[in-house]
Amino acid sequence: MKKLRSGGGWPAIWYTLRKGREAGGLLKLWRAMRSNNACKTCALGMGGQRGGMVNEAGHFPEVCKKSLQAMVADMQGAIGPDFWGRYGIAELQTLSPRELESCGRLTQPVLYTPELRRYQPIGWEAALQRIADKLRSVHPEETFWYFSGRSSNEAGFLLQLFARLYGTNNVNNCSYYCHQASGVGLTSVLGTGTATITLEDFDAADCVFVIGGNPASNHPRLMRTLMEVRRRGGEVIVINPIVETGLVRFNVPSDVRSLLFGTSIASLYVQPHIGGDLALLTGVAKRVVELGAHDVQLLTSACRGGDELLERLAHLSWDEIVAKSGVPRETIDEIARRYAQSRSAIFSWTMGITHHAHGVENVQAIANLALLRGMVGRPGAGLLPIRGHSNVQGIGSVGVTPRLRDAVFDRLQQHFGVQLPTTPGRDTLACMEGAAAGELKVGVCLGGNLYGSNPDARFAQRALGSLDMLVYLSTTLNTGHAFGLARETLILPVLARDEEAQATTQESMFNYVRLSDGGPPRHAGPRSEVDVIASLAEAVGTDAPIDWSAMHDARRIREAIAAIVPGFEQLADIDRTKQEFQIAGRTFHEPRFATADGRARLHAHHLPPLQGTDPGQLRLMTIRSEGQFNTVVYEDYDLYRGVDRRDGIPIHPDDVARLGLDSRETVAVHGPAGSLQGVRIHPYADIRPGNAAMYYPEVNVIVGRQVDPASRTPAFKCVIVTLEPERQSPKESGAGDAVHTLHAAPASH
């Protein structure tokens, strides 16, 4: 298919009209999008009490393809009872991620057992009793509890409370597979792990770094903000191994001038090698110091570790920096010069920074670069991890993590008069490893796709298959329901955010708490997540003096959160006051931070070697398509990259020639966890030579389980692979490795 020359624009408008038809009419979709509910996709914070399609700054209209896709998926018809008779597990496993998502809304609980070889409907009471009986039969430490970032604060808090009072700290969330490195890295620097800015800070910024991400596809509403920075004459510096169409030029549909004539986004576009970010960021910091553009006074008064950082930068050689980043010295000089001339700079990043074996160090290096010029702790400047799931930050805030913050731990015990377990708890990958080892027996998943989110998909399937029982709370089908099967697997259908009978809350990536009013259910059968969790807690019972029946009331849960979680005090009355709020203590407009002494901590790093330098190797990163949100695939084609299937590997034409490949033939891709066959070569001049990309989650089958030791985030980026033309006999891919054939459904335009 033809690659577009600009993101957004008229294709986005035509797409909106098409989705309107799928939803039963544009007016019907408009009403759903305008309801007072926070956006279901990314955490930029659209919706809430200002009405749908309104951002935190009050701008209207704010809408993107991702929010349309999620809404239309929730407006699908119901999966009928006859579906389960026609589709056994074998048939479900032949469906692509897009086809599974498009099967329809789940409306009745279903049960899978190996004897049945398929799901079959089961009543709500029977399903809950079956789960409760199993939970009572195992030790609490033999269970784990996994949370998606699309659930509400109320559901997240209630389930983690139940899990802990049941007796385990094996409580974790999807952040461990995305931005955990951001949280750990920022906390090590500033004492808090979230954004240091508000959306309004962009209004004063004259320089924005976009590092390791593609917001034009994954967070499209941010493009209007970047457009406004450019219109004010500001800089947008993009650092990404792939030249992404929408980050070069974007037609913002809600702005007539941009829609008609387009907007140049990147003022400087830099392509490091995959894995070269730490060297590049450190090199820019070194050059800033050489230019004398660093803030010596702030480094002394508001930071610790400044002398060590400056000494480390002075001793690093430019030859090492250039070799390990893949970026010429002249380009690094240009980045530093533009940054040095800025008055207020914001640094933003996504998983291209966190999905590395040194992800925390990457985040620390970004913070170093910002603090060198005093770009943290002042209006219009700061740090912004661009988060995906609409409430992944809120889920963490309300206690969904193995170890609670001391203040939350103490207040929770005092508020309910309970004793909480003090075991360390397992992070997400540790739970998978525990399941594979037979140490865990039961898993409960509040939304998401745990199977599809894991590296080493074969291991993930084997680990989940070792469980006695796995419970999913879901709205639609995904690959986890087909491949992530325990000896008994139950799917409990739940309501979408705008179908809840009670109001719920979510937290944006700017630390802003939104209120969602809910709305009428679209189908009979699904229940709210809060209702399901409270019912399960009632059925299981705990020794704690908690009236679980009262916890069906979301207001009671908010009152508990307000009393327990620092910064959430206003949550208690939010459904009455309708006053959304900024969480205190996280936004830094003065150079005093949330550390014990109020000073930021700088970190000096040794640069890791650049991987994948052997002539036959490529550095591969997992990517998402323009028609995708996290593991959910809405379209098989990738409009902005001009790729019409998901079974390909974009590599530079120079690499096609260098490796002796023929783009008309398929290849086997060998990675740390195994091999993929039937992969199509896609010559792609916009990727840096020596590097490659493949679509997640399908590529997870070859991604190894190497993690960043500080955050336990898997290294989905910089996966070292080799390619083998399939006209030759297959290579051995290593002891115990399996070979998997990659199938992709034909593109649906």
Give a quick rundown of the structure.
With 749 residues, the chain is α/β, with parallel strands linked by helices.
Features:
749 residues; alpha/beta; seven-stranded mixed beta sheet; 29 strands; globular; disordered C terminus
Give the % helix.
25-40%
Give Rg in angstroms: 25 Å
**Lateral strand order in the biggest sheet:** 3-2-16-15-14-4-5
Largest sheet, strands/sense/barrel: 7 strands, mixed
Q: Give the structural class.
A: alpha/beta
End-to-end Cα distance, whole Å, is 10 Å
Number of helices: 30
> What proportion strand?
15-25%
Low-confidence stretches: 729-737, 744-749
Present the secondary structure layout:
Layout: E1 7-8, H1 9-22, H2 26-33, H3 65-74, H4 81-86, H5 89-92, H6 97-101, E2 110-113, E3 118-121, H7 124-137, E4 143-147, H8 153-166, E5 171-173, H9 180-190, E6 207-211, H10 215-218, H11 222-231, E7 235-239, H12 245-248, E8 249-251, H13 256-261, E9 263-264, E10 268-270, H14 277-290, H15 296-301, E11 303-304, H16 306-315, H17 318-325, H18 329-341, E12 345-349, H19 351-354, H20 359-372, E13 382-385, H21 392-397, H22 406-416, H23 428-436, E14 442-446, H24 450-453, H25 457-465, E15 469-474, H26 479-483, E16 488-493, E17 504-507, E18 512-516, H27 529-540, H28 554-564, H29 574-577, E19 581-582, E20 600-601, E21 617-623, E22 628-629, E23 632-633, E24 648-651, H30 653-658, E25 666-671, E26 674-683, E27 691-695, E28 719-725, E29 738-741
Parallel strand pairs: 1-8, 4-5, 4-14, 6-7, 6-12, 7-10, 11-20, 12-13, 14-15, 15-16, 21-27, 24-26, 26-29
Antiparallel strand pairs: 2-3, 2-16, 8-9, 17-18, 18-19, 21-28, 22-23, 25-26, 25-28
Helix pairs in contact: 1-2, 1-3, 7-27, 8-27, 8-28, 9-20, 14-17, 14-18, 14-20, 23-25
